[in-house]
Amino acid sequence: MALTAESPKRSHRISGASTRAGQSPATQDSEAHSAVPRWNKTDTLWTLSLFGTAIGAGVLFLPINAGIGGIIPLIIMAVIAFPMTYWAHRGLTRFVLSGKTADSDLTETVTEHFGIKAGAFINVLYFLSVYPILLVYSVTITNTVNSFLEHQLGITPLPRWLMSLILVGGLILIVRMGKDIIVRVMSYLVYPFIAVLVLLALYLIPSWNGAIFQTFDPAVAAQASGHSLAVTLMLLVPVMVFSFNHSPMISSFAVDRRQKYGKHADAKTGQILRRAEGLMVIVVMFFVFSCALALSPADMAEAKAQNVTILSYLANHFDNPIIQWIAPVIAMIAVAKSFLGHYLGAAEGFEGLVIKGANAGGKRSIGHSKKLSTATLLFMLITAWLVAWADPSILGMIETLCGPTIAILLFLMPMWAIHTVPALQKYKGKASNYFIFFMGLVALATIIYSIVQAF
Q: Which domains, ranges and CATH numbers included, belong to the chain?
């Protein structure tokens, strides 16, 4: 999962909005009943932007959780991946489109429908959906580099406390020194990363074996994963939510398309989302299945225990120079890219919460300042470093922190709104709504399951 991208062709937004502003009510009514506008270049740009944003380093963990339970969870995931991803993002898009004004973003729409406190809650929720991901990538970059040094270079890594400090501190220093350059470079790296995933999946085809098909026997699958099929599927859902997520981009996407298409925005955003999610699911599922067929559930369990990405495990598993050297390098680039992107989002969210919290007191008004920027840097550095040093389970963090938090914002809140907000009543009662709400509850259930397991 990557950070939000810039809206394609902002000039189209402005010109589209200004044209409708000058239309008479009769013209607007006629437009509302006319055919949906034809597909154009900006629709293609948004499709590629959403597709590229969704595929990031988070995909490198999905094959592990999907393959560890055997073939049945893989088949179920292949069946539900598209509807789950498409309906969830469409629901959030429709929620943003339900705002009274054409430029109402997610927070403004929440405030409009649910009040100021709910708007503030969404700001907190957004921060909590980005910040834990930064912590996940702090652990991941440390483990990926350590694995590369030890297995590919034959070098004993530095003590973990020092290595994690160097890596996390170095990445934060890079993004603080050149924010605009970093954002531009990240946007250029998205599609080469996707191409490498596809090529690696193709390269693994000769290594496909039948080990995973033995898990049609539930007893064999349970022995490999350590869980029953039901628990395995439950733990897979938040990882799917995490890996297929591009919700941070939905607000700007919905606003942009609404300003261009007006009352046709729902139909057009649906078209764009279907194509973007279709591309994403095809690429990700091909990569997941190729990894699962080239390894075994026991291998996936070992990868989870080693707390590394699937690329690092592949590099250490196969006696193949190409995979041994290319896979970990690609993993390091992907994780570093995702870390930098989520640092920007987490830092902006943290500063926004501090400013709004301070101004809510009414004593004095504060804004962005050098002191606040320094405090944010220190908070991010210290917390990310300590978590990377502690080396908690990466998939455990995704299952109990990242996935459930994203699910509240992406799965539960829009479905609740559809059944309570008058502007969204026309979407009420559809089976897809209940499916998405159920999947959101399953993602949240992993938190309860983890607490019960801890005791």
A: 45-454 (1.20.1740.10)
